[in-house]
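In the laboratory, one determines a bound structure by crystallizing the protein with its ligand and collecting diffraction data. In a computational setting the workflow is compressed into a single prediction: the sequence and the ligand go in, and a structural description comes out. We illustrate the idea with zinc ion.
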Amino acid sequence: MSPAYRGFVGHFFLALSLFLLLLPGYAYEILSDDSLNSLPRASEDYDIHTGSLLSPILRTRVPGTEGHEAVLEHFANFFRTTLPKWNIELQNSTSTTPISKGKEVPFVNFIASRDPPGAPVGDVGRLTLVAHYDSKLTPTGFIGAIDSAAPCAIIMHAMRTIDAALDAKWTAMRTEGLDPSLEDEHGIQILFLDGEEAFDHWTDTDSLYGARSLAASWSSEFYPAMSTYKTPLSSIELFTTHWAYQSLAAAEERLRSLGRMKSASDQHWFPDSKKNSHDVIPLGGISDDHLPFLARGVEILHLIDFTPFKGFPPVWHTIEDDGEHLDMATVEDWGLVITAFAAEWMELEGYLDFEQQTKSQTESQSKSRRDEELEFEAEAIRLNKKTEL
Ligand SMILES: [Zn+2]
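The predicted complex, in structure-token form:
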């Protein structure tokens, strides 16, 4: 992100579909207290040394390097073993950088999505959660824990937490004689974008390499003629950001009042939540991955901490932005809030059954351990092939 601003525990943004609110009978469905109380925290999986979600991302991952490739494989492996029903895509591009001496550097955006079963491509609007996964070239050894390893892990945790409930909801619809592909036109999508950081000094061309490429590619890729949405970009066309902001604020407040949050509560994360949208002073100018999408008309809620509120943590863009400097209570709490918001958006009240989920995850994990070596090798080959294209 632009060095002119200071920011929150990493930076990530949410893009939410406007269309979905306009569906007849569609309603954002808030979770019950019981459901909020049952949401798991990802404590162990966020362990910075051994956690299955976060620790593999806490390494240097500059585009075109071995660390970068390993993190990409970690994402692919996570979705393949833990969320096998998700569709994975890689979007590749190359660009020279101010320090590459004319050489093309590869950038790989990681895209994973899940739609109602049988829904035609082009008819599904997707709640889209986005973080960048590349790390900054300098200072040497920079890890980028807040920027943005932790947000990637937070999103992975949220998607893992709601996945079984998506199945349960779509199965229940079938049982009731409804066809999820026709009745439920909303899906969910995550983007882990590459090349957000500048290689030299932040400029319009030395930054946001992956986001610029993906926004351009998605705006020129067309769905079949009769589709609800014209392009992948318009399928993340959104509703009002202030509404999403207020929904997140409500989730934070309810989780705090239920005693589920561990971080300090002296300062609420969403200070404008009680204001009407026209009373909120827009604070523009933060350069981040949302810009190429915003420029093409996608409605964005950008979650970032900046002055006059808390401001960026002092470790931002320094060698100290590492696992040891993460405030784990805050990271875990964000995991809860994002999970609650995604579950409410996807209308999963009544379908979150974590006892059942733990059982089936344990089964699939023991299977995946058996197959791990072979599958991992195959994935590495597949990723390499795609990257070469
Ligand atoms: Zn940064």
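The beta strands are 12-15, 87-95, 105-114, 125-132, 186-193, 300-303. Keep in mind that any predicted model is a hypothesis to be tested, not a measurement.
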